[in-house]
Amino acid sequence: MMVAAAINAATPKKRAFSKQNAKSPESAGRLKPPPLALTLVEGRGVVELAATLATRSILRHAPRGDGHSVLVLPGFLASDRSTQPIRRFLDELDYDTHGWGQGQNLGKFYKMREVLEGRLGEIHAKSGQKVSLVGWSLGGVFARYLALVHPDKVRSVITLGSPFAADIHATSAKKLYDLLSNEGPARPGDLEKIAGDLPVPNSSIYTKLDGIVNWKTCIAKPADNAETIEIRLASHVGIGVNPAAFWATADRLAQPEGTFKPFAKSGPFALAYG
């Protein structure tokens, strides 16, 4: 299961994408990709999945919400197969979960944006309610874009190891992303909008031991409706199947619509939160 995160970000579109006067990330200084040593031990994600399977009886007691629709978006080079564990977990909590239904995520954000907007629109129309978005890695970047251009359809955004902030070069997967996407550099201002304030509650779940993206690119801008939740000892490949991340995701989804209260970092996995 390969969910490397790479970002070439979103396009100028609609109200939230109308201004192009933001400062470019290149002028703000460069972050570096994670050390090779961290990248080489990303295989520990298998242990995180095993931990989730071993704690299923505990996870059944995770906070429950109102059962609204949740769209789960996979990371770069991944598909809906990679998000099956978290979707199954949310199904057991009675949420109406949906995969993205687009096969393997090959990036191509500028080409995919209308497809993703259509997918969101279908789920919203069917349920008649706002949809929460859970995005793993690059999927989280997509989720933030959707929240910016369709706040009337999005209830909340939860990202897992998503490099939406700071420098797009701070990932070990950038060259591969550029090769497969073939879209050229991000358009001026797009990255800053993705990294900025969102009109809906948003939680960024990350790990400082990420071996694919520099963890500093996962830090949400301070806001009354935003937060950053650290998962200790997690990996990039494993954060989307990590039991502590599952619990935090459930807790965030359980918040009543239109409200936001910071994550308490409590519960059976409290020691896992930084």
From TrEMBL:
Q: Where is the AB hydrolase-1 domain?
A: 74-202
* Protein name (record): AB hydrolase-1 domain-containing protein
Disordered, as annotated region? 14-33
Q: Name one Pfam family in it.
A: Abhydrolase_1
Question: To which species is this protein native?
Answer: Candidatus Phycosocius bacilliformis
